[in-house]
Amino acid sequence: MKNFVSKNKGLFSFIMLFVLTFMSNQIAFSQFVCQPSGSPIAQSGVLATTDPTQTGRVFRDGFVSSCAGGAPTQAPLAGTYRYDKYDYSNPTGQAACATLDFDFTGCGGNTTQVTVYSNYNPASPGTGIIGTSGFSSTGIGSLSFPLTAGQNFTVVIAEVGADTGCPSYKFTINYATGCRQAGFDRTNDGRADITVWRPSNGVWYTLNSAGGFNVLRFGQSGDITTAGDYTGDGQTDVSVYRPSNNTWYYGLSQTTPGTSFVSRPFGVAGDIPVPGDYDRDGKTDIAVWRPSNGFWYALRSSDNTLLSRQWGQNGDVPVVGDFDGDRINDFAVVRNNNGVNKWLILQSNFNYGFVLGCPSTAAICGGGVDFGSFTSDKLVPGDYDGNGKTDIAVWRPSNGTWYYLRSGVAANVAMMAYQFGASGDIPQPADYDGDKRTDFAVFRPSGASGIWYLNSSQTNTASGVQWGAATDQPATSPYKVQ
C-alpha cells in the first residue's frame, strides 16, 4: 500500500510504559444505525374477492430491500392477483428510512407479498418499486426502503396464489433519519472520527472529522471499550465494560462523562460484551454473549426488558451485525471448521433464521458460510457494498488483504479482495468519508507513534495521519481484539 502521512499541528504522539497485549479472542461489530423520527403507521386489512386485481406479481429474488434501497432484477411473474394499496407520505421533513413490519399469520396459510412503490400501476407491477421483501410469506417479517423529504409512496399487499386471498393481515411503518454506518462518530456528521483509548490512564483521544480534537477520561486499565450511541442522540458515547465487576459504564455527556454517566451491572465472569441495537430504537443496548452456554443476553433500551437467545457454543467467536438489513442486530458466531471460519448467522428478519439475501449456491447457503482462516484472519464485517446490510469479511495480516462477500449479488461474483495494510497493523473499518459504506482502514503501531491509514470508498484514495501512541487501543471501529 501507499503510505501518506500528514504531520498536522496539534496532533500528538505519546510514549507509554504500559504494554498492551492482544489475545486471540476477537469481537466484531457492524450495524447500520438510525434515529426514530415521525409518526408510526399501523394498518390492517383483508384480501377479498371484491378487491381489484393486478397484472402479474413481483419476482421473488431473495434479496430484501434495506435503507439503501433494492428492487427485483427480473420481470414480474405472469398471472392475475388481487391486491390492496395504501398511499402515504414521508412525514419527517427530510430524507428518511422507512421500515415496514408485516404480519401475514392471519392469512390462513395463504402466501402473501408486500411491495412498496414510488408510483404504482396495477397493469405494470414490476415498475416503480422502491421496496420489496424479496420473498412471499405466511408469517412475519420486515423490509426497509429510502425516502426523500416529503416523498409519496404506495404500499401494495398482493396474493401470491390466484384467488387465495387473506382473511386478515396487518403491518406497521416506522420512520428513521440520520442513518449511517456504525463507528465512533462524536459529532453525528455521518463520518467516523479517528479515536484511540489509552488503558494506562483511561483517556479517549479523538481527532474530529470536522476539525479539532477531544480528550476525555473514562475507564481504567483492564476495561474493554464498548463505545456506542446509548442515549440515541446520534453521537457516539464513550463506554467500557469492566470484567472485574461485570459492570457497564457509559457517559451521558460529550464533555464531562466522568461525572455524568450510567453504571449497570450486567453479565457474569467470562461473558463477552456484544453491544448493539437489538430492538431498533436507535440506541445501543447493553448485551453479552456467554461462551459457557452459547446464550446472547441483551437489555433492551426501549422497555428495559431482557432478550435471551441461544446461538453458538463454547469456542465460537461472537459477531454482531445486521446481515439482513432490518436495522436489528442479528445473532452470529464464527466457528473453527478445521481451520476455516464458518459463519453461522441467525437473521432477525422473517421470524429468525430465514435465509435472506443469500447467494444462490448451496456452498454459500447451506449450513453456514465458510469464509476466511480461523487461525490467522481478523473478522471485519461491515457494509462494504453500501446496500445497508453487513457483509461477511476478513482481513488477512500475512498479505494485508481484505476479503468480503457482497451481500446483494449472486455467489459467483460475491467475493471481493482489496490489498490495504501490512502485517502488524490493526484493522479499523468504519465510514470515514460519510458515504454510508465501510472504508478499509488500519492502525499501525510505528515506533512510539500510531499511524492511521484510511482508504476512502467514495474516492478510492488513501490518506494517513499520526494519532496516538503505538500502545494505544484504536477505538474508531467497533471491531476490536481483546
Describe the structure.
With 482 residues, this protein is an all-beta fold. Helices cover 1% and strands 43% of the residues. It contains one helix and 35 strands. The protein has a six-stranded mixed beta sheet with strand order 25-24-23-22-1-35. The protein has a five-stranded antiparallel beta sheet with strand order 3-4-9-6-7, with no helix packed on it. β31 (440-446) and β32 form a beta hairpin. The longest helix is centred in the C-terminal third of the chain and has 4 residues, at 362-365. The radius of gyration is 23 Å and the shape is globular.
Spatial order of strands in the largest sheet = 25-24-23-22-1-35
What is the percentage of strand-forming residues?
35-45%
The biggest beta sheet, please?
Answer: 6 strands, mixed
Mean pLDDT: 87
Describe the global form.
Answer: globular
Topology:
Layout: E1 26-30, E2 32-47, E3 53-57, E4 77-89, E5 96-103, E6 112-117, E7 129-132, E8 140-147, E9 152-159, E10 166-181, E11 194-198, E12 203-207, E13 213-217, E14 224-225, E15 239-242, E16 247-251, E17 261-265, E18 272-273, E19 286-290, E20 295-299, E21 306-310, E22 317-321, E23 331-337, E24 340-346, H1 362-365, E25 369-373, E26 378-379, E27 393-396, E28 401-405, E29 415-419, E30 426-427, E31 440-446, E32 449-455, E33 462-469, E34 473-474, E35 480-481
